[in-house]
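Minutes, structural biology subgroup

Action item carried over from last meeting: produce the structure token record for Probable protein kinase UbiB (Amphritea balenae). EB confirmed the sequence was re-checked against the source entry. Recorded below for completeness.
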Amino acid sequence: MRRLLRISKIVRVVAKYRLDTFFDQLNLRWYVRFLLALMVWRYLIPVGDRSEGERLRLALEELGPIFIKFGQMLSTRRDLLSDDLALELKKLQDNVPPFSGTYAQQLIEQSLGSPVEELFAEFSAEPMASASVAQVHAALLYNGEEVVVKVIRPGIERTIKKDVALLFTLAHLVEKLWAEGRRLRPVEVVADYETTIFDELDLRKEAANCSQIRRNFDNSPILYVPEIFWDLTRQNVLVMERIHGIPVADVDQLNAQNTDMKKLAEQGVEIFFTQVFRDSFFHADMHPGNIFVSRSNPSSPQYIAVDFGIVGSLTAEDQSYLARNFLAFFQRDYRQVAQLHIDSGWVPEDTNVYAFETAIRSVCEPIFEKPLKDISFGLVLMGLFQTARRFNMEVQPQLVLLQKTLLNIEGLGRQLYPDLDLWQTAQPFLERWMKERMGPKAVYRSMKQQAPDWLDKMPHLPQMAYEALHQLKNLDDVRRRDMLALSVARQELKQQGNQRGRWVGVACLVLAAGFAVEDPTMLANDLPAITWLFGGIAAVLLLRR
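Output recorded by EB:
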């Protein structure tokens, strides 16, 4: 019933903001157009003076956090959207309608167990920014430090549960009604997203993510991560250092202070690849509302990141295969790309590598007709995965978040510096990472990491060696007993076979004797009787043991 109510609300919102007009220009099948024509509201509700972008933004805001996050991701793709849509969806990044500041203050006091006046020297009830899951208030600690206080939206968990339940329903329908549904594993993808979105509702997890990335980039000239105040952080309240910077999407203000935009864009790509390949721990919600640029040194700009509710991670195997895929692709080594997909288990091991290579080449070769700076990393990854799906590649949930983040980073980089050559920026990093991973330094680093474990086990080596030798001796004894038992069993079977053979020989002799009694001349003239006689004698002689 809850899912039906949620579906009915979605239909009402679509009708209210006339989102059906987005489909009018698409090349749809005739029966889809027929169904659209049957929608009664098309004839009752006027489109009005609002632009398409404004109507879509208002609809996403009304539908709640999951839909808002979808709009946030779309807002970074200026190459896929019209200017009107991109500018309107950009407002979803930090301009979602707030809830009451007084109510936020009550939630803070309930969580931290003290009045706001005792916790902070100053507290602003007017929110600084309001996002899909939480909103942020400015405050001042008694030691003079400026902080921000993040508070989870009240009742948001119920809304998310309804939306996730609806997504599960749709995923099950896709699996049942679409031939390719089971291979794409939509239920597993929704389950992975459910974990991600509910992790955002626990601000202690976000604080832990922030602390980890802060350690990873400690004293980094290209990325600054604010400090967490753990004594003032709870499940639905987070207090962190307040930062002062320029929103990364405010290109006019960045240009006004003579920011090196080329360097800024390249450093964004470097940060992404560093998090993915060096740390295997990356900020996976890097839309422009969560990224700022420091004002301190425009010629060597430094990013400032906030909102660490969604992070991603890859296994060492996935890191290696992904890096080698990128390198092989830009070297046009399509055989290597195909083989890597098979070796990684992303496609079945019995896949025809030659056919797979040909399919990849047919998709990728047209891309190289463009300058390298115009090649989209995100679209390359999507193209590879779409081609692989024709060869029964299952959806890899661990790569979905990475692909989304890569699209965000790429859209942001091209917005800052349209001539950004992602390959020129990424190639040296990937090649250096592969060398460090597989070269002598990697061997030394692995030995260094394992040395404490080896030293811990060294005193026990004599006992372990004795036990291993004892187990080998026991294994030899067991094998000897097994071989002896097998030999005895074979002898018994042989004796049983001989016994049966002797009885057969005796039976043959008895039959031959019967023929002789009945007709003494038969043994001399009749072939069957002679056969019985000599067969019986041979059986008795050969099986006498």
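Discussion: The chain has four domains: 2-90, 101-154+202-312, 316-438, 461-542.
Next step: EB to file the record with the rest of the batch.
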